[in-house]
Design a protein that fits this description.
Strand order of the largest sheet: 3-2-1-4-5
Number of helices: 7
CATH superfamily: ATP synthase, F1 complex, gamma subunit
Subunit structure: F-type ATPases have 2 components, CF(1) - the catalytic core - and CF(0) - the membrane proton channel. CF(1) has five subunits: alpha(3), beta(3), gamma(1), delta(1), epsilon(1). CF(0) has three main subunits: a, b and c.
Subcellular location: Cell membrane; Membrane
Order of helices and strands: HHEHEHEHEEHH
Number of domains: 1
Largest sheet: 5 strands, mixed
Function: Produces ATP from ADP in the presence of a proton gradient across the membrane. The gamma chain is believed to be important in regulating ATPase activity and the flow of protons through the CF(0) complex.
Number of strands: 5
Protein name: ATP synthase gamma chain
CATH class: Alpha Beta
Distance between the termini: 33 Å
Oligomer: single chain
Keywords: ATP synthesis, Cell membrane, CF(1), Coiled coil, Hydrogen ion transport, Ion transport, Membrane, Transport
Length: 306
């Protein structure tokens, strides 16, 4: 049975409303993505600059680096690894394609891997969707600071402080970060990387063992540089800043990925709605034409009866 004229018209109005909503959400996600990308780019540049300062400091220091006890604890592995913490960065909302599904799949993968090695796994969820998934699966969780659409420096500092407290207190023996990494508009990947104990991924893997002799061998023109305040104090401040900036970079990339997934999902939804609208308009015109034809036939028949 053919759909009637009024029913099709109502469906068109409903579809137009849906198209307006999806287009608005696409535009909003695009604006947020642009802002987050800019912040992530600046944060990455700053983080790299801090890393270079630390490298340079290690190159010119005149004797073996004597770092603070706290810093040594942060880069030293616990003797017995029993409890694993996984910071999971997710979303508060849906309508972001398979963004949350990919995170859930990675959670399952990481959990299975750690449990097989005999470790107790605790998740630290950021995002209501992640909390819901972990609660549904019955996983152990620990509290962590939540983050809004635009992560601030205060957010990264709070999260970093909490992670350090969990590690330094011995409540967790290792801490990983599970999140989306944003490499480009065409490449985002869910990764789980170790955060604590922190391992330097640049020149000096273990700064506590870098000696003057090592540096002289690399640079015959190596000289003596005096620092005020002490080089150890400068290094510790740079290290604290680097950790906080690293967390901020992870937060920004996670949010950038979320906004990109949502923008793409809404773009696809808008395209689908437009296709449906086109089909409905054709049906609407056919229905209207049939209605007019029927009315004309009725008029002609009525005139003949007269």
């Amino acid at each position: 049975m053919k759909e009637n004229y009024r029913s099709i018209r109502n469906r068109i109005k409903s579809m137009q409303s849906t198209l307006h909503t999806t287009s608005a959400m696409k535009a909003a996600a695009g604006a947020k993505l642009k802002k987050i990308q800019g912040q992530a780019l600046r944060s990455k540049g700053f983080m790299d600059l801090v890393r270079v300062f630390m490298e340079d400091l290690l190159k010119v220091q005149k004797s073996e680096m004597n770092i603070s006890e706290k810093m040594q604890d942060i880069i030293t592995s616990h003797a017995d690894i029993k409890k694993i913490g996984v910071l999971v960065l997710g979303s508060d909302r849906g309508l972001a394609g398979n963004y949350n599904n990919l995170i859930e799949n990675k959670i399952n993968e990481v959990y299975s891997d750690k449990k097989e090695s005999g470790k107790e796994v605790f998740f630290l969820p950021v995002g209501k969707r992640v909390e819901k998934v972990l609660k549904k699966k019955g996983h152990l969780t620990l509290e962590i600071h939540d983050v809004a659409d635009f992560p601030t420096e205060a957010d990264s500092e709070k999260i970093n402080t909490q992670l350090l407290d969990y590690y330094l207190s011995g409540e967790l023996d290792e801490i990983y970060i599970l999140s989306f990494r944003f490499y480009s508009a065409s490449k985002q990947e869910v990764e789980c990387e170790k955060y604590l104990p922190f391992s330097f991924d640049f020149e000096s893997k273990n700064i506590a063992k870098v000696t003057r002799a090592d540096r002289v061998d690399r640079d015959p023109d190596f000289g003596i540089t005096e620092f005020d305040p002490q080089a150890e104090d400068i290094l510790e401040k740079l290290f604290e800043l680097y950790l906080s900036t690293f967390i901020r970079q992870i937060l920004l990339e996670s949010k950038a990925s979320e906004h990109l997934f949502r923008m793409n999902a809404m773009s696809k939804a808008a395209e689908n709605v437009e296709e449906l609208l086109e089909d409905l308009r054709i049906k609407f015109n056919q229905s209207r034409q049939a209605r007019i034809t029927s009315e004309m036939i009725d008029i002609i028949n009525a005139s003949r009866d007269e």
